[in-house]
Amino acid sequence: IFETTTRLPEAADLYARAVAANPRARAMRFNHGRVLVNLGRLDDALAVLMPLTTPDDADSAQYAFAVSTVYVRKGDRANGRKWGEEALARARKHGLTDFATAIERELAKIR
Length: 111
Known about the structure:
The chain is mainly α. The protein is built from six helices and no strands.
């Protein structure tokens, strides 16, 4: 509810508390990172999102792509491309064809 009413600081706080209560909840960690990005707290978002890239499973393709996106937003195109290519490799490896196609389109924009 806090996210949809643009109360992002409160949403970030609630996600942080939810993650503390259940550290293995990858989706909750992802949402926390996403809110941090929307708050402009890109370094904090990377700290939350980076651990989600392991293990290498189908879900990690999404998390690797999120890391790529944060790097691009920070202006670090080299790491953005690196993590985008990693996300693409994982998407292909795990049979996420539509997602792989979407990643390819985004990678074409990173020069």
